[in-house]
Amino acid sequence: MFKMCVDEEPEETVSNPAFTPNWVNMHKSVTDVIADFLELLYNQMLNTFRSQGLGPENVDYNVLFTVPAQYEVLEVERFRSIINRTGFGKHTINVSLREPEAAILYTINHGEKFWMPQNQCVILCDAGGGTVDIASYKVSQLLPKPILEQIDIVSGGPWGSIKIDRNFRSWFYRECLNNESRSYFQSSPEGKMNMQRMCQRFIAQKEVFDNSPWSEYITIELSPQSLSGPRIIPGSGLLRISREYAVIRGAIESHQAGLLGYEDQIAVKLCPASYGIKANTLWDPSKHNPRLDGQYLNTFTKNLMATNQVVWLIKKGEKITGKRIAELKEEFTRSFKKSPEATWQDSIVMCTLDDPPFRITKDVKPLCVLRSDMTHLPVYLFKKEKSKERSWFRRKRFYSCEFDIRFSVGLTDIEFALWFKDKVRSDLLRISWAELASNS
Predict the structure, then answer these.
(1) Which residue segment(s) compose the domain that 334 sits in?
(2) What is the dihedral sign for C-alpha 191, 192, 196, 202?
(3) Is residue 80 part of a domain?
(4) Number of domains in the chain
(5) Of 5, 148, 298, 433, which is most buried by a Cβ count within 10 Å?
(6) pTM, rounded to two decimals
(7) Angle at CA of residue 405, ends 403 and 409, nearest 5°
(8) Can you tell me the distance from the alpha carbon of 341 to that of 377, in angstroms, rounded to the nearest whole number?
(9) 389 in a domain, yes or no?
């Protein structure tokens, strides 16, 4: 379980000097820092296991990572790419469970059943250090083993205790410092060290703050003590509970149950977003608008086509039952004259609106590009067709290629497989993730 900043807007750390992290001055990116941290974590894990006779030469490692609820597929894929840069990439890694799911699984299995009666709803508020997530489930079965059904989309945001820490630092810069003091804390190594020291003192006091009538304030010691300014900071309370334990144990127990072949205890899940294909579709006068939709004439079929449309494969809120994934299939047909001369590209898009649009808009975001490469296949594998257009009393001929792409949609990821002539052909498909490509 690890909180990272890859889903945050970079302007937050650039525009506000109070949030400027140390690695900016080291000319490192957020990705570099996360990779460094994970590499150190991996080395610590490796040394600990080896001291117990459990080195990788003796046992296989299966490493589980959970992610916050609001992480979209692109953030998860980027996280996977960072993991694969480190020592963890040498082993089996699993990033298939979000933190609210892990927490509710532990709660339903180990909590007081009195508070979770059958056919009633349970609302989980997962308040952590980086994020706060809300999830709601119906207890469809309690005995012999609890079974849950998700009844609404899990939502959340970066409202965890780190938000309180950042607000403290922002308030301190804004209210307690003059220009000379700000320069000291921003520029000098001693000032940066003192700022870090005060922030750590604030965090320590915040975590034991109980908001009782006789402790209305948090008091911290200024660093350096000669600094002028208020020493009493208005109270802001947070009670730390063993939330990390619930997430970790829930993830481990869920993974163990899956390895043993048990059914998922969350029997019904809801797809967190809509996923579809950017496509050109047959022009429909009742649906398409010449002012909003581009159009062209297909040279082979002579059909009028609308451009920049979306064929949605699965929509936000649709049920995923039984397995962790929804398995979908989409048929593709491509036409050419003599032989496929280039790879065919299909853009996969996503949308988090409750009612996604049927055309490309600002709310439809690129997810990845699928490249289907048939250029090295012999032409006899493709189907011969006749065009509607005639030339010298003969109808022109062309070839069509028909193949399927099967999608496996989960809560944290989406996988693709190309089928051609009733066989899986992984050699014919390449996947380029949109965000990863733009950052490379």
Answers:
(1) 271-439
(2) positive
(3) no
(4) 1
(5) 148
(6) 0.74
(7) 170
(8) 11
(9) yes
